Amino acid sequence: MRRVATVLTAISMTALALVSAQAATLRVGLQDDPDALDPALSGTYAGRFVFAALCDKLVDISPELKIVPQLAEAWEWAPDGKSITFALRKNVTFHDGTAFDAAAVKFNIERMKTMPDSKRKAELAPIASVEALAADKVRFNLSEPFVPLLANLSDRAGMMVSPKAAGEKVGEFAAAPVCTGPYQFVERKSRDLIRVKKYPGYWNAGQIGYDEVVYHYVPDSTVRLSRVRAGDLDLAERVAPTDLKIVREDANLALHSGQGLAVAHLMFNVGAGAKADTPLGKNATLRQAFELAIDRNVINRVAFNGEFLADNQMIPPSSPFYDRAHKIPARDVAKAKAMIAAAGMTRVPVELQYENTAGDTRVAQIMQSMAGEAGFDVKLLPMESATAIERYMNGNFEAYIGNWSGRADPDPTLIAFFSCAGSQNVNKYCNKDLDVILSEARGEADEAKRKALYVKATDIYLTALSSIPLYHPNWFFAARKSVGGIVMVPDGLLRFTGVKPAN
Amino acid sequence: MSSIETTPVAGRVRAGGSPEIRRLLREPSAVIGATIILFFAVLAVFASWIAPYDPNAPDWMAIRAAPSAAHWFGTDDLGRDVLSRVIFGTQASLGAGMVSVTVAVLIGLPFGLVAGYFGGLADMVISRLADALLACPFLVLAIALAAFLGPSLQNAMIAIGISAVPVFVRVARAETLVVGTEDYIAAARAQGLGDLAILTGQVLPNVLAPTIVQATLTMAIAVLAEASLAFLGLGQMPPAPSWGAMLDVARQFLSEAPWMAFWPGLAIIALVIGFNLMGDGLNDALNPRH
After folding, report:
1. For A95-133, how does the pLDDT look when each residue is reduced to its tens digit (9 = 90+)?
2. Do A384 and B256 count as a contact with CB atoms less than 8 A apart?
3. What was the pLDDT predicted at A13?
4. B216 and B275 Cβ atoms separated by less than 8 Å
5. Best residue in A243, A245, A361 to probe B by mutation, most B CBs within 10 Å?
6. Nearest C-alpha neighbor of A235 from the set A220, A213, A251
7. Which of A366, A382, A383 lies nearest to residue B58, judging by beta carbons?
8. Do A233 and A29 form a contact (C-beta atoms < 8 A)?
9. B100 vs B55, B104, B157, B281, CA distance in Å?
10. Is the pLDDT of residue A8 over 80?
């Protein structure tokens, strides 16, 4: 009998040892399947989410939206703002063992500026040349002062890939990316999973708690959450605001939330083709009346259980350049009616197009109902995503609910939507004065002066209202309590420094 | 000896339509089915009088409220009265059933008659086309057509109607083939009646009964198809209510607000059962083989 007990104990000890020796794996549920895993080509949030494991950047952003060191330990602007010098972190290697140095930075910037289908060209456009001053010192010479550069380098434009791997595998790099991040690429099964494993040579390897991370593609947010509840996943990104109650009530789960950079806004076609020829497209007063007719807080409460942030500006309140003086105007149906009457109308027709997602469908119906009380006859036109985006890009809409992911710096957002030649200015709004202010602001290194310029810009775009900002989504991750050390950053990406099994 | 069997229906109808009705009233399933359909028809026609609230009027202070004295079926994600939306949703469902089946009969019946009566090349072309359409699962075809036509209730009805055409071609063709061999058709020909006169005067009345049975059964499928298309965002446009669209939204709140899914789901089941019972009853009453 005793012998049996000894044997049993031995077996259970071995089993325990095996379990503890087993590699710690973090299983993450992703809403979208990422596109190309090459920082030069990537165009999706899901791709950025995976890059947070694979590729370090020159600089990073902190939860307070400050620029903090990553591969660059320090940087210094030239007094004229036309060059910036980075001191690089030493003893950093790529996943293929090659060294990260100034030459690698030069290679990467030039690669992203010249690769034929690179999506980083605009973000790096003002960089005229890159000089490797020493192995750990590199200077970017700019054609004009460009303050948002650091913010751009905190995203894919600042991700460094191995020159050796990129040179050897031209065109195939995205299938097996090689960077300097905490995890290295193992495998990808399209529309299923992406597996990465801990890179032992990582410069901050001591802070990396999991041996392996597997990203599972689970498009439905309710299913994603169910799988975390069942213990089949450890973390789900982008949990629906209407599901948060479930997360809060589950003793095994922790809700990680944080303010985001994104914005949802109602765009009016003011100048793109025939669809701009509408009362709302031609008359800013009517657009102001529309803003007064809706209640952003009700939209947030009804459509998102009040979990998002109702707001009237394109950049979020977490940004140092947010204009606190421009408060959300209170709903005023009587005033909206008076403004419509002053424009010589009683009923104002408008066709509202949107992607037929659950959230946008609710927002559209709420706005239809509220604006209807003031005199706007809103006709709803839901579209499946691909068609909606195609029509959006072609300016083929009267009004459209836009969802913009936002950036750490106000420049890319405001330039994209409100400069005459902006990449997202599909509704063709154009104001030369605003263009001058926005280009001055991107060259202004002094934060206070820069902020004053953005206050002016905010004043102009909130008067013209070619777009009515509605709310800023917040980020919600649902994770098992066993995952410790998660820190939310406004870009909504899961960083791994300090993330480890909790017990 | 075959005088009874070969008496054209048209002749019998002229002699008095009551035997079918009497036979129908003796079929309990037909009576129950008709009652259910009548109930929903009344709801659809008098929706504005019956519904306690405007189906599209939101109440921001009663979001996803549980059933209560004020809202018997509860409220939905925008605070709209679910009872009122189920009542008004009847219009979309019944409308889709009626319109799409009418479309299907209007297209399918003539083609089936022509294919069965003339045979030969006409039969081959029409039958192969119908077979090609039948090869595609009904709902898949309806989804493809609705997606192609663009989302709206009207387009959903057309898509469902077109998808149901081949069934009516088949039924009409098969019955025409049977009727075509009857003596009275030969007699009509001998009298010098033209093809059109024979088709409309002699063949059509005899093909009508099985077509009506098929139409009733297809109505049930059409109601389901409309709900499915609306569920996929290809039917009734928001905010107008449709049972399928209500289910689509309710799906997000199954555990939190089950009443949002329960009532439209129950309505779909009831109406589909109604049409199926009616179809079975009609079949038993009208089909001389029973």
Report:
1. 999 999 999 999 999 999 999 889 899 889 999 999 999
2. no
3. 55
4. yes
5. A361
6. A213
7. A366
8. yes
9. 24, 6, 5, 22
10. no
Interval A157-188: pLDDT, tens: 999 999 999 998 777 899 999 999 999 999 99
Q: Which residues of chain B have pLDDT under 70?
A: 1-18, 288-290
What is the structure's pLDDT at B234? Answer: 85
More confident residue, B290 or A267: A267
pTM value? Answer: 0.82
Residue with tokens 């509220």: A370
Measured in degrees and rounded to the nearest 5, phi and psi for residue A197 equal -125, 160
* Interatomic CA distance for residues A229 and A239, integer angstroms: 12
CB of A60 closer than 8 Å to CB of A68: yes
The ipTM estimated for the assembled molecules is 0.78
From B229's Cα to the closest Cα of chain A, the distance in A is 13
CB environment A424-435: b (16+ within 10 A), e (fewer):
bbbbbbbbeebb
Q: Write down the pLDDT at residue B233.
A: 78
Contact B252 A380 (CB under 8 A): no
pLDDT tens, A415-442?
999 999 888 899 999 999 999 999 999 9
Shortest distance between the Cα of A309 and any Cα of chain B, in A, equals 18
pLDDT for position B41? 96
Beta carbons within 8 Å of A434's beta carbon, 6+ residues apart: A418, A419, A457, A460, A461
Q: Please, which residues bridge with residue B75 across strands? A: B81
The DSSP string of B127-188 is HHHHHHHHHS-HHHHHHHHHHHH-SSHHHHHHHHHHHHHHHHHHHHHHHHHHHHTSHHHHHH
* Contact at CB, A369 and B252, closer than 8 angstroms: no
| Cβ contacts of A220 within 8 Å, gap of 6 or more | none
pLDDT at B5: 46
Structure tokens at B129: 């086309």
Residues of B in contact with A369 (CB under 8 A): 56-58, 78, 239
Residues 6+ apart with CB under 8 A from A193: A214, A215, A216, A217
Mutate to test the interface with B, among A225, A369, A381, A401 (most CBs of B within 10 A): A369
